[in-house]
Amino acid sequence: MSPRPQSATQLQRMLALVPWILANPETTIDELAKRFEVSSREIEKDLAVLPLCGLPPYTADRLIDVLVSEDGSVSIRLAEYFERPLRLTPGEGLALLAAGRALLAVPGSDPSGPLANALVKLEEVVGGPVAVDVGNTDHLSELQSAVAKSEQVEMVYHSFARDEISTRRVDPQQVFHALGFWYLAAFCHQADDDRLFRIDRVQSVRLTGEQSKKRPVDDDFESIFHPKVNDERVRFLLNSEALWVIEDLPIEDSIERDNGKVEVVIAVSGTAFLDRLLLRLGPAVEVIDPPSARDDLVKATQRILDLYSS
Amino acid sequence: MNLTATLLDTRRPLSLDQIADRLEPGYPDDLAARRRSFERDKETLRDMGIPISVESTDSLGGESGYRIRPSDYYLPDLDLTIQERAALHIAVTAIRVGSDAGRAGLTKLGGIEGPGSTPIARLDLSGELAGCFDAVAKRAPLFFSYRGDKRQINPYGVLNRLGNWYVVGHDLDKGLPRAFRVDRIEGSVSIGKAKSFDRPDDLDVGSFVKSDPITYGEDDPFDALVLVDKNRAVGVVAQLGEECVVERKEDGAVVVTMRVVNKEAFRTWVLSLLEHAKVLSPDECVAEMVAWLKEILARSK
Predict the structure, then answer these.
(1) Would the ipTM clear 0.85, i.e. be above it?
(2) Where are the domains of chain B?
(3) Is the pLDDT reported for residue B17 higher than 60?
(4) Do A29 and A70 touch, CB atoms closer than 8 A?
């Protein structure tokens, strides 16, 4: 057998394993397997490599000494230079701090509990504040408890894309946060279909006390944001000031035209969404197709202008 | 493993020949092959975050030598309690960051403690964010290209708001506090000398990026009044806060006040309310809004 670990993953694990065993000499193979999320067999392999590792000239007094007793408890000697774990990379420190800060910002987290304390200690060692603002959390805990209790909810919801306010009865399935907002995935009785609701657009929530149906939940949050097949497709010509649209919106097609202009196709889920985009871009955009989109824009613009002439 | 131990144990930098002499199993005798295998190992270790430093083997600037400085390698003692480890495990499983960096970090801290959680949020850490954070952690100046300009800042922290990551700090050219969206940084960031500056004592990273993009910009600030009809009043007050309400009309409409430092963002916000919101003052702002709408109308007909 060679003292070379089989892979970077094994090496990384071994460099973490050794300091842990040095600090916790009563630990067992089973405990280590659970802690480092591998099988006991993998841990045994790691422990078999260790006695071949050490310092030049690799005589018995320079090689790591591993003792595994009959009851499976493990201890290590002659590895003083590995007594502390490897420092965290910036990416690892960032990931721990960001995840911790995000969870701490969710209502229900204890702002002075173990997580908060752990983050203070981590920040001291890793450095640098990481702040995560999880946005508006109104109605969040009510909806979370409705999900937990499988209870039907009646809510007043502002559909931004259609600019409508409606009362809906839903079977809540899952509450999650993505791309800066909280979402409720639910079966909507009005639409007779699964819908995704932005929780910051929920105006009021009432738990009905009635049982809701549990449905399989898509754990991959990403897939919910794909445009629907029956969304209308609109074709625009953007000039150079409006090119951020290409980065910020789900563009289905884009063709470069003269003078730095770009022709794009966007799936549009509601007239109001489209009107807002066009009103925002103003002179930097031109609707090519369909003509009805241009008519809608004229009407929407006129309605707003009327406010100012009264 | 042995290479790490040897470089960590040595007090003076070792040349490749010295490493090859000592290490078991050794490197090939052929010099080119030896260099290649060593470079490959060195990269593997560096990718894992093992800080191999390259120094001269003598004071005359001779051959390159290698070692791992213990102060660079060892994680300082965090002294985490079992409950704190368990809380970090829950955080890493509840918040998905799009990579296994969090889990790799937990491994170094001694593996997982207690049960995990089902995922409740997604927070992407891709792009130049780790580079920005590295500069924050090292208190090193950060250099990058942003909207075509070269920027240099003393980065104080990173912040996620409304799903966007910002690096905030002191803009060394403008002499002002600034926030930059990390996803708009062009190309790669580079980092200056560590420990170049101190963070302000009363640092509040959140204050660099206002919760609403309307209140973030470089235009001369002014206060605007906006009338919001009853259909959108609830949502707007929830967004801006009760303190922005100047007047409540009998029909349920509200007049809100807001400080504008970014006219474009303000116009976008008002227009996003469609025919449910109207700018009341200042007059100049009303005139600009009307002109904007008339131009859209003229071009669309």
Answers:
(1) no
(2) 2-73, 82-122, 129-209, 222-300
(3) yes
(4) no
